[in-house]
Amino acid sequence: MKTLKITAVSILMVFMTSCKVVVNTSPDQTAGNSKQSLHNISLNGKVFSAVWQQNAGEFRALCYQAFNLAQLRIDENLKKPSKRPLAIITDIDETFLDNSPYAVTEAEQGKDYDAKTWMNWTSKGEAKAYPGSLNFFNYAASKKITIFYISNRAESDRIGTLKNLKDLGFPNADDAHLLLRGTTSDKEARRLEVLKNYDVIIYMGDNLADFSKIFNKKPQTERNELVDQNSNEFGKRFIMLPNSGYGDWESALKGYNNQLTPAEKDKVMLENLRGY
């Protein structure tokens, strides 16, 4: 992997400086000098997230914590009678496969996500597994629990995705258990297909929409309220993995949409920050 020309410290300094600009200037001033002061904080933020994801013991600890907790939930469910076979539904990207090298390489080129470069990455099948994930999924398989991988990767990513899963040793790594995005990113129809024949005991993801349709396309305030209303599900049926790099939380920010320029997205992000 190429060596970054931007250090973690410089990224953090940019971020802190940008936050200070928002707190100490008027909205008009902020809008006027955003291109000069922000230095594309959205891309730098993704790189800083990758620095944490690739290096921090705290990140590893959160992964182990999630998978250890999920294993406890398996053991609890195995004690309950079930007339149907048990299953786990899991997302892939930033739930147990680490795509931070892709984010870093794109940022080095001053770019964000791009479908063509993303396929170049997935076709390699070289993403590493999150700490604790392989042991967890193989433990589930040893207990006769079927794993379904419901991902919003495109069908064009299928070959590379299956290669990646098989090379790492994940169970049920075949076409029947890999349900990719069709005409919609909404995962509900795919979840319902699994539920026709299985009792799904655990849902795993890094994004709220990985768990239930109630979280789909909701604004930030409503998403947060729904999390609070369903707080008892997290750590039980819903197991969340850490991903600060990207997700629906971005598009849920007030004023954010994917048609904005990078500088406009940066401005929206900073307008959604609190200082003191």
UniProtKB/TrEMBL annotation:
It comes from the Bacteria. Residues 1-21 form the signal peptide. One of its GO terms (cellular component) is cell outer membrane. PROSITE patterns: PROKAR_LIPOPROTEIN (PS51257). This is 5'-nucleotidase, lipoprotein e(P4) family. NCBIfam families: lipo_e_P4 (TIGR01533). It comes from Kaistella flava (ex Peng et al. 2021). The keyword Signal applies. PANTHER family: ACID PHOSPHATASE-LIKE PROTEIN. It holds the Pfam family Acid_phosphat_B. Keywords: Lipoprotein, Signal.
